[in-house]
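Box S2. Input/output pair 1.
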Amino acid sequence: MSEDSELSKKEKIQMICGLLRQAPPNEFHHVFEDLRFLVMDDQLMRTEAAQECAFHNKKNFKAVNLLGGNSLVTHYNDLRGNRFFDPQRTFSFRYDHLSGRTDKFLLQGTMGDDAELWRSTLNGALKTYMKMHFPVGTCCVFRKALKSSSYFVVCIEGHQYQPSESFNGLWTSEWTFACTPPSTEVTGNYHLQIHYFRKANWQATVDKTVEKSVPLINRVQFATALAKFIEAEDNEFQIALEKNLQELSVDLWKTLRRRIPVTRTVIRWDKLLSEENTKVKTFGSSVSLGMLKGLP
């Protein structure tokens, strides 16, 4: 590369951050290694990548294996300094975003008040729901405070990382509410990422927001009602997505720049010059949202 075409440090940082933020689920480190080879500046890469990786992990509710079970790395349990709080086991831990290691566990004091009883009951109901519907998933209920009032944030993460099958998928949702009888307004936000890379490179990101009032009579009733509400919204979201993906897969054949035969096969163009007979192979996608979150 000539001196005239050499990127400035500011331009390199913009490029690094921009590409790392687009990293598909479970592929951040692959993108990092590719950029490291291109940029040829390990110090700059590690400095910028550490910040972007932390943002990436917290945004995508990174699931981590701790003593006695799994927890999540999110913005809601961030204690700063790469330390995070696990409310169910009442200890904090240090998390190295680049290496994925957890260490330096410390017990944290928690208030055994009424709000903590609500959090624990909600966690129990949602844990049962997760076992029923998510093959690989983690749920955490975080108690937060705004002035003198408490509110709760439910974070759900489900994933299927299958690079050997050319597929990585991540499903996250967060649900925010304050327990205010006789009904509580619940706001939910979905974030779905899919990367399919067998004979193609197809990525999809889907976001959705829902709001609804859930009746609140007592702690146990509300925890059960919330789990049923989330289950109904999850199923509706999944069904709509699978329908849209099916329609997209049909429309896609009509809009490809290089037209394919009506038999929906793709020609091995790279062998046209070397082989007398063109070899034809079927081109299809097997992305299934049911792998991330299963219907009953």
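Box S3. Input/output pair 2.
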Amino acid sequence: MQEEKHLTGTLVLSVFTAVLGFFQYGYSLGVINAPQRVIEAHYGRVLGIAPIDRSAIDFTDTNGSKSTLTLYWSLSVSIFAIGGMISSFTVGWVGDKLGRVKAMLAVNVLSIIGNLLMGLAKFGPSHILIIAGRAITGLYCGLSSGLVPMYVGEISPTALRGALGTLHQLAIVTGILLSQVLGLDFLLGNDDMWPLLLGLSGAAALLQFFLLLLCPESPRYLYIKLGKVEEAKKSLKRLRGDCDPTKEITEMEKEKQEAASEKKVSIRKLFSSSSYRQPVIVALMVQISQQFSGINAIFYYSTNIFVRAGVDQPVYATIGVGVVNTIFTIISVFLVERTGRRSLFIAGLIGMLASAVAMTVGLVLLGTFAWMSYVSMVAIFLFVIFFEVGPGPIPWFIVAELFSQGPRPAAIAIAGFCNWTCNFIIGMCFQYIADLCGPYVFMIFAVLLLGFILFAHFKVPETKGKSFEEISAAFRRKRRSAIKGHKAATELEDLRGSEEA
């Protein structure tokens, strides 16, 4: 089969090496969850504040100590996303200036520095070192979360683009799961070892650094951006093996001609040009729906939610979520090329909506019926399953599919910025909103999910099995038909007006 021949050792190595960036992103997302009490207690000792009992029902705060610790804790969680927000805007420039591989090599330095600061947190003011370390790691992940889909999207054959794109999410959930397992108190999630736990993803950064030296540059970047035809052919031969590269070279030539006919696309041009408006709106909305679906509330605060639900060993329940997360992400790798992006995305959102409602019912009635804790737990697991089926993996690679080579770096930059901004808002605000709304907090996400379902149904296109050029052409056709429809409606109104006159 032609598709199987495409999957060469070099392609596998290159994709694996690139998605190590997403593994670090997942590890950084999950690592802060399990040792929350240990780190809060340490902050309390450093700052001279009593620790918080988050499982208590009474949330009165007589001396402001709780709000101070909550502020430092929320900042430790969410500063990671601020780093990502800042650096994600520079993805297009860095990727074009250095090339995809050299850019990934360079940004690994940020990851190593950030992880060192966290690993040495006990040797200084720990709250400052953790917040600074997570901010710098966030800078790395913001760049990496744009560069990796760009590189993987450009080196993948069309037939495998969806499946290989889903590996971004698999790397994230593997990172989350490993951080949760290592976060157990008898492993690294204890008072002695938590700095090592926080700084451990620096090892993945070192591994990625050395493996990247073996990876070929993106042939699309070499051919379209630099005009190095022979180098692009060599790179393509390494990635595809014995397969005939003629079809892909022809496709790149088409894209190059299209890119040459349009000026370099800036972020401002993406928003001002009518030809990019529809794909930009879709790109931003899939990112917003991924983050505002409530999934990061589960990742950041799942241990705490299980405590509220009355689970005796909440850390093990959180690890259970991580295992389910990983299994269903692997399943989505096989589903995405068979079922299509759009239908999986919508099905996932509908399942998450039902789960959010069930979770709310379980938490509200927990005081009346003890068995409702099981309803809440099952709902959390289902919520995660449906997320991993579609809304989790698809936004990472669909943005690269929606745009041709010219506007792609700028589009990935704004989509990344949008994703990180939403990530920050959730990380910073969820603890406060949860304290304010109590068990009704997931109804907010249920309402948002309903909006995302309606948007996806009417606006998100199917990109399965289509070349970048075909997807761009589909948007152009939609725009032309919309303009024709608008003109026809205007002419009809004018005609009616003249008749009435």
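Caption for Box S3: Confidence is low (pLDDT under 50) at residues 1-5, 54-62. DSSP finds 23 helices and no strands in the chain.
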